[in-house]
Write a structure and sequence with these properties.
By secondary structure, the chain is of the alpha/beta class. The protein has 3 domains: 79 residues, Gyrase A, domain 2 (2-Layer Sandwich); 252 residues, 3-Layer(aba) Sandwich (Rossmann fold), CATH 3.40.50; 176 residues, Isoleucyl-tRNA Synthetase, Domain 1 (Orthogonal Bundle), CATH 1.10.730.10. The chain is 52% helix and 10% strand. It is built from 22 helices and 13 strands. Strands 1-2-4-3 form a 4-stranded antiparallel beta sheet. The protein is flat. The structure holds arginine.
Length: 564
């Protein structure tokens, strides 16, 4: 692929160095004004003339050639036109020669990114509130990996706390292994609810729970066996959902893993004089930074969520030597992350600057079903099942003879749910609606999947031999193809931007633009035709479109069915 920015910078005779000139060149917003634009505002200061005058003067001096065919001065900008037929075939060749991995790069080689995401709690249900952390974290995992980074996916399990003492008491009194095995987390949760119901009338329960929790901490065999049983039930359930979502982890070290790893960082904080006593508890004062104190040790000597996160960050740095450690967690925990990041910074860990809270908004269901106050939790599994069943109905209606319908319904239903968490800038709250996410004509995953399948069916219809014909470049020298190919050509940069901003939505938005541009291209230009040279040129564009849509969806964790 030609480096257009450099070619253009070389043609501008202005008193700035070449790299700076190059950095000012950007894709033009409107194809009719050109393909790349160079603003003269910065030069105005250096050259002490108006941008309009400078643009006129520079334009007159530009030498066009076979790659850069035209230049125009417009309102203080230089607008460059490239050889469009050459540009289109260049981009398409790049995509096709990348063998399905267009947008991959080695920019991250030698660097490590830890991503803490999903991070479920033992004995708690896996509900719609976990969708965003799981979808965004997993997409970032795939995006960073595509850029050559070593990625460590971490499920920081919520597997520590006094609630597990209560769980054991409840289970021993009213629980049953077989029932827990068959009904799963739902059964564990109802035992837990029963504990809280009975506790006011049976104060001895509180004491028993405390004892059992102490036994867990001491490593008592029976206590640990029961805890492991609860853990297995929870994780077995969660893992079936992860499998459906294409989500993987490299580490399941949760809060309890840090039981014996908090003393050292705490001692360091004490040595640095950062810890003060406050009503028997140990805290780091953060008043100077406009935050309440960070509580690290309670008056009874027990540790907190923040203590464990501090120990975890220190351990991860040692273990993985990360360049960045991301925490994909809802914005409700903003303060928690700000506090413990600050504590680590004050402790003198220069890498504290590499910790990033990747915050996101809340998900609610359109019918208001996700109301935690009413206690009716909507399980992620149930949302997936319902989306898949609706997808199955839509497919039965649109394409009743489709082979492998069930598998396609799964890919479409799950993809629709995942995409709903990835389509908008992550900080926005989401109101989830089945009809909206499954709309085949909307800005949705099914729309992308359908467009991709449409490309596949065009390619299939043309037959394998169709590519051998020499391509006629003039068949793809038109505004619709140019628009489509420009979008496709911006995919590698979008992958980098998505990583830099921790925003998978950069990719989802581009995919929607590509699919829409493809559908306009397809309306305007007949791909299958008797003119073999014309057909070959357009088929290449179709292949490139399919390849980028498929790749982009894969980075979001979404499958693209061959046929739909
Ligand atoms: N388990 C926690 C929760 O459900 C999320 C943990 C996030 N990760 C972390 N290192 N704090 O709220």
């Amino acid at each position: 692929m030609l480096n257009y920015k450099k070619l253009i910078a070389d043609k501008i005779d202005a008193p700035l160095d070449k790299t700076e000139l190059e950095s000012l060149v950007s894709p033009a917003a409107d194809d009719s004004f050109g393909d790349f634009a160079f603003p003269c505002f910065k030069l105005a200061r250096v050259m002490r003339q108006s941008p309009v005058q400078i643009a006129e003067k520079l334009a007159a001096a530009v030498q066009t050639d076979e790659h850069i065919v035209k230049v125009q001065a417009v309102n203080g900008y230089l607008n460059f036109f490239v050889n469009r037929a050459e540009y289109v075939s260049d981009v398409v060749n790049d995509v096709l020669s990348a063998n399905g991995l267009y947008g991959n790069s080695d920019m991250g080689v030698g660097k490590t990114v830890c991503i803490d995401y999903s991070s479920v709690n033992i004995c708690k249900s896996f509900h719609i509130g976990h969708l965003s952390t799981t979808a965004i974290g997993s997409a970032l995992y795939k995006i960073y990996a595509a850029l050559g980074y070593k990625v460590v996916g971490i499920n920081h399990l919520g597997d520590y706390g006094t609630q597990f003492g209560k769980m054991i008491v409840a289970f021993k009194l009213w629980g049953d292994r077989a029932k827990a095995e068959s009904d799963g987390v739902k059964e564990l949760q109802s035992l837990y609810v029963r504990f809280h119901k009975e506790e006011p009338d049976h104060p001895e329960l509180t004491e028993q729970a405390r004892e059992w929790f102490a036994r867990i901490e001491k490593g008592d065999a029976e206590a640990l066996e029961l805890f492991e049983f609860f853990k297995k039930i929870t994780l077995d359930e969660v893992k079936t959902v992860y499998d459906r979502l294409n989500v993987k982890f490299d580490s399941w070290n949760g809060e309890s893993f840090f039981n014996d790893k908090m003393d050292k960082p705490l001692q360091l904080l004490r040595d640095k004089g950062l810890i003060t006593e406050s009503q028997g508890a140990q805290v780091v004062e953060l008043e100077d930074y406009g935050m309440p104190p960070c509580l690290l040790v309670k008056s009874d000597g027990s540790s907190l969520y923040a203590t464990r996160d501090i120990a975890a960050a220190v351990w991860r740095k040692q273990e993985y030597d990360f360049d960045k450690c991301l925490y994909v967690v809802a914005y409700q925990q903003n303060l928690h992350f700000k506090q413990f990041f600050k504590v680590l910074e004050l402790a003198g860990f220069e890498w504290a600057k590499d910790l990033v809270h990747v915050a996101f908004g809340m998900v609610s269901l359109e019918d208001g079903a996700m109301s935690t106050r009413k206690g009716n939790v909507v399980l992620l599994k149930d949302v997936l099942d319902k989306a898949v069943s609706k997808a199955r109905d839509i497919i039965a209606d649109k394409n009743p003879d489709l082979d492998g319908r069930d598998k396609v319904a799964e890919q479409v239903g799950v993809g629709a749910v995942l995409f709903s968490a990835l389509e908008n800038s992550r900080i926005k709250d989401i109101v989830f609606s089945y009809d909206r996410v499954l709309n085949f004509d909307g800005e949705t995953a099914p729309y992308l999947q359908y467009t991709c399948a449409r490309c596949n069916s065009i390619l299939e219809k043309a037959g394998a031999g169709a590519y051998e014909a020499e391509a006629d470049a003039s068949a793809v020298d038109n505004p619709e193809t140019l628009r489509l190919v420009k979008l496709i050509g911006s995919f590698p940069q979008a992958v980098k931007d998505a990583a830099a901003k921790y925003e998978p939505s950069v990719i989802s938005a581009l995919l929607i633009d590509i699919a829409q541009a493809f559908n306009r291209f397809y309306i305007e230009h007949r791909v299958i035709s008797d003119n073999a040279a014309e057909q070959s040129a357009r088929l290449r564009v179709v292949r490139a479109t399919a390849s980028v849509l498929k790749r982009g969806l894969a980075l979001l964790g979404i499958d693209a069915p061959e046929k739909m």
